[in-house]
Design goal:
With 472 residues, the chain is mainly alpha-helical. Helix 2 runs parallel beside helix 9, helix 5 packs antiparallel against helix 14 and helix 14 packs antiparallel against helix 15. The longest helix has 42 residues.
């Protein structure tokens, strides 16, 4: 039994920490899910070929895609029963107690702070490479401007932010369709296996089993962030129906787009070239003899990067908002303005993200940090679904996970494997994230545990759950 909390807050406290309800329907939410991830189709994923060969990355795509399908199906069920802005934090809080909830929320926060920081470096690179700014324009100044502009849009209003995000995402989606049309005629299956064995026994897996493990984090890049759709639950029009529909729909879109770029890009240029490309889709179209289309995709790729940056900032602010409102993080972080947006969380998240860019510098390292935080949260969320099913089998849910606990058991196993795989890519960065989670755990037990808000939505739901369990 967890000890009872004595801290209760007034209605005025929650009024200052409330989001704008009914701002998003399921189409906007599905667009949000695609926007989280769409930049991963334009860049980053192809480096997995350099680690594991094309087949190694293809296997990673299937395994990590399976992990995401299992995880989001479990999430869809839990969000239909508990539609709060805390999402994964709230689910784990009710299933595994307060520390389990905090650790999940902290891991999600790590993901949504590190990922936008990484993408901001890619956006800056795109701007500079396209010649849109003078060659000597300071890169850090450009990154600071990027954070300032898009944080400002989010602070202005959630409805406006999501609509702009959907428009930007559509431009990126059109570019992906254009890429497939332009690359398909030049596709050659032989190009997928043109890397000579180096530690492996064949061109299929040129780097052997260790290469396959190292490719797993890059398989994650095709889907990283889609699990953030339930973070918009308190701003959805009908969260119990809209959230499951949106998260499943966005996952279906991402499987199709990811499979398309994985196959056609390497099949046009060859895996050897693709594994080293900084602009995979552009290089593939140039190799296919479509320079005009390559330029369009190059420009539109910038929209894809902006869409992911924009939406991940949104997700991170909602996670910080929910943790803060319930007292797990300092409560000033959950203050909202007149337009019902968590402006303090947005500003603090932006400042930390920018400082990470200054200190770490490498976008690739920041990405691996984000992937590790994400995979830890996936393991905890899958475990939460299993525990939740055992604790509350009769709880009314708006949607049920196909396969039930078996589905999330598969997701749990794959997410644990994914956690281990990040150490094959960058051991130092992975250890750094573990240290952050340990430091956060110390903060919880020393300070936050004694200051949690007993009537926060997640705590209220947990109390109802405990009461119903006692009746049974």
């Amino acid at each position: 039994m967890e000890e009872k909390l004595e801290t209760f807050e007034s209605s005025e406290y929650f009024e200052k920490r409330s989001l704008k309800t009914g701002a998003a329907g399921w189409m906007l939410l599905m667009g949000l899910g695609v926007a989280y991830v769409i930049s991963g189709d334009f860049s980053g994923w192809n480096y997995g070929i350099a680690h594991g060969g094309w087949l190694g990355l293809a296997i990673a795509f299937v395994l990590m895609g399976t992990m995401y399908v299992c995880t989001v199906l479990g999430e869809a069920e839990m969000s239909s029963a508990l539609p709060t802005a805390g999402a994964g934090f709230a689910f784990s809080r009710c299933a595994m107690g307060r520390f389990g909830g905090f650790l999940t929320g902290l891991a999600i926060t790590v993901e949504y702070v590190c990922a936008p920081a990484a993408i901001s470096t890619f956006i800056a690179n795109y701007f500079l490479e396209l010649g849109l700014l003078p060659d000597d324009f300071p890169r850090l100044v450009l990154i600071a401007i990027i954070f300032f502009i898009f944080l400002g849009v989010h602070i202005f209003g959630v409805g406006e932010a999501l609509k702009l995000m959907l428009l930007i995402t559509l431009v990126g989606a059109v570019a992906l369709v254009a890429f497939v049309v332009g690359a398909a005629p030049a596709f050659d299956p032989a190009g997928l296996f043109d890397i000579a064995p180096n530690g492996g026994t064949s061109t299929a897996l040129p780097f052997g089993f260790s290469g396959l493990l190292a490719a797993l984090p890059f398989g994650i890049w095709f889907f990283l962030g889609v699990e953030g759709v339930p973070l918009a639950a308190e701003e959805a029009k009908n969260p119990k129906k809209d959230i499951p529909r949106a998260i499943i729909g966005s996952m279906a879109v991402l499987i199709c787009t990811g499979l398309a770029v994985l196959t056609f890009a390497a099949g046009v240029t060859g895996s050897q070239v693709m594994g080293e490309s900084s602009a995979p889709l552009v290089d593939a179209l140039n190799a296919a003899g479509n320079p005009g289309l390559a330029f369009f995709v190059n420009v539109a790729g910038l929209f894809g990067l902006i869409a992911s940056f924009f939406s991940l900032i949104y997700a991170g602010s909602r996670e910080v908002f929910a943790l803060s409102r319930a007292g797990y993080l300092p409560t000033f972080l959950s203050l909202t303005g007149k337009r019902k947006t968590p402006w303090v969380a947005l500003v603090v998240q932006g400042v930390i993200g920018f400082l990470l860019v200054v200190v770490v510098e490498s976008g690739d390292v920041l990405l691996n940090m984000a992937v590790l935080g994400a995979c830890i949260s996936y393991a905890l969320m899958n475990a939460s679904h299993i525990i939740f099913r055992n604790k509350q089998p009769g709880l009314k849910r708006g949607w049920l996970t196909p396969g039930g606990k078996v589905t999330t058991c598969v997701g749990l196993v794959l997410s644990v494997i994914a956690v281990c795989s990040t150490f094959f890519v960058d051991t130092i960065a992975s250890i750094g994230i573990i240290c952050v989670l340990i430091a956060g755990s110390v903060y919880f037990f020393v300070y936050a545990k004694k200051r949690l808000i007993a009537n926060a939505p997640e705590e209220e739901f947990a109390k109802l759950e405990d009461a119903s369990a006692e009746i049974r």
